Amino acid sequence: MQKLPDNFETYDEKRKQGFITMKNLKDKGQRVIGTFCSFVPLEIIYAADAIPCGLCASSEEPIPAAEAVLPANLCPLIKASYGFAYTEKCPYFYFSDLIVGETTCDGKKKMFELLNDIKETYVLQLPNGRDFPDALSMWRDEIIRFKEKLEDLYKITITEEDIKKAIKLKNRERDILREYLELGKLDPVPLSGYEMGTLIDASSFSFDIEERCETTAKRTAEVKELWEREFKGKKSTRPRIMVTGCPNMGVRDKIIKNLEELGADCVVIDTCNGIRTQLDKVREDIDVYTALAQKYLNVTCSVMSPNRPRFEEMGVLIDEFKVDAVVEIVLQACHTFNIETYNVKKYVTEEKKLPYMSLETDYSQSDKGQITTRLEAFLEMLM
Ligand code: SF4
Ligand code: SF4
What is the pTM of this model? Predict the structure, then answer.
């Protein structure tokens, strides 16, 4: 199995370290906006001279407390995120000036109503689909309203020039992240999916975008050099897996790390906390609001109906990363991803002629043994 970098830090370690950084930034008057979703146009936040801070939680610890308010039969990501706010245990929630939600899945949008009782939660009205005639213009208007909300909150004016600068900055970061994630195309693959996923998720706790770009670019250069030195010309027999489905930071150890320890390579992670959000850039040659609306309406999340672009994107990734099989992760009670598994399975097995398995799980460790047994059986079929 591939080696982790010497200075590797787990997601939890990075999250904890970020607490002090965030406190210091707030002491200096830094503006902070808490977010939950890949549909939130981060460029508007940067244009307001604020920093976005991801609040999606990955720990089972606050779930019992959340269940005092929320139904138990709800996705663990929603329960954990709400639980951290409800128990006042998340410094990032505490330090956020405003929380931004969005009308994605039913669980999240109803949870945001309750979250608003704890801290002001501004909800972006995301269209349910991309294909109806007014979807793009509705979403563009909503992005403008979000800009106006931040102008009002901070008593500032956000100009189109500010937004253009933010677009360039984020596009540069997307290029760097994409180059790093595309290391998964190398054969044999010189870095693990566990490392790639951790780097992406943990980057939400380093708040300096320039520093993030530098760290990622440095790691990309190191891995390329390692590949030339130790991997080039060798043949790997390890199956190359695409991981798709729900955001997986709360189950990464249980599934992705486990898969890699059992002998596979997770070469591409086609999720919100993987390559999915880095594929498209924001156009720099058209009106800023239209460009942002286009980019963020195209996130291929299952909350969109219909969601054809997800399959087109998967097809390209399967071919480019030379994928041998697809593993889909569905968080319990995530209806949109769960229902979409039917079509994903059909697409993968019938059109791409590849093996597919889906795993429904939550943040507990109680199903770890069962998951290991299923992964072993799946890999046995591939090896
Ligand atoms: S999976 Fe969908 S709802 Fe969840 S963060 Fe990603 S885009 Fe948002
Ligand atoms: S994983 Fe599914 S249910 Fe959970 S927040 Fe994302 S879209 Fe909603």
Answer: 0.96
